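Quick check before the chapter quiz. The format below is the same one you will see on the exam, so make sure you can read both the input and the output lines.
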Amino acid sequence: MIHFHNPFYLLGLLLVALLYFFLRRREKPSILYSDTSWLGIKPLNKFYANLSEYLLLIVLAFIFLALTRPQRGYESEIIEKKGIDIVLTLDVSGSMRAVDFKPNNRLTVAKKLASEFVQKRAGDRIGLVAYAREALIQSPLTLDHKVVKDLIESLDFGMLEDGTAIGMGISFGTFLFSNSTSNNKVMILLTDGINNAGKIDPETAAKNARDAGIKIYAIGIGKRGEVPYPVRIGIGGTRYVMTNFEINEEGLRKIANETGGEYFRATSPEALKNVYQRIGKMEKTTFKVERIVKYKERVDYVFISAILLFLIFFTDPIVSRKIP
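Here is the expected output.
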């Protein structure tokens, strides 16, 4: 891409064009001279007769071009991703075995949709916390989404003692934001039960998260009323017992409101998917694109061309010779 640092001097080329037009239109004065045809000398045609002037005009044009400081450059594009720090805090307690999302249980559906959510969050750092009676950090905040997805897939029952310590899950999630410099800190808290364990109650944990600038989106997962729950019988046998797992929706709503977030209830896989989509729309990652153009001076080519023309003007006998 050619760029002129001082494009105003391009107007000088109009002057050169006017001089050329004047030169072409100019009539040579008529004078008497001896007939030299008998010497075998042919008179120069009009172009060669004015060649020296043409060369000077071209040199003048190059001088104006040099004054414009022609430059050749290239564009580079910098894409600055202004991402969000997100921590997924997932309940892996025994009640997540409930099979109200046939043929899958709650945890299977929660893992699948959480993984899909991570896949769509390009530019965001994501961390992962699992909790039951205690909480366990699975992944710190990272841009390596493949690792996070693999860790989500590895979540399973029995990795923690059974129970539901929502306050501990929030506290461990808050800890992951300790070194975060992001202006947007989001925690997605998913559970299907009532807090019944842990050393920190959910309300206190929510206030600590609020003070850390964290926004919590709480999700209550599972159908209302009785749902089929697998119970082992004998060796390798399983039967399903209709069981009611209540969710403290009012408590989860308070947690969300305390931090400026929102509470959602997901009673089906489609509803949970819609919840993740809504959160994705509310917490958008922004991209800033900056274009940088770098130029390199190319005036040397113009000067070299002008010098060569001057050499031709002073050394070429065809140019310097005129027939009187």
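If your answer matched, good. The chain has a mean pLDDT of 82.
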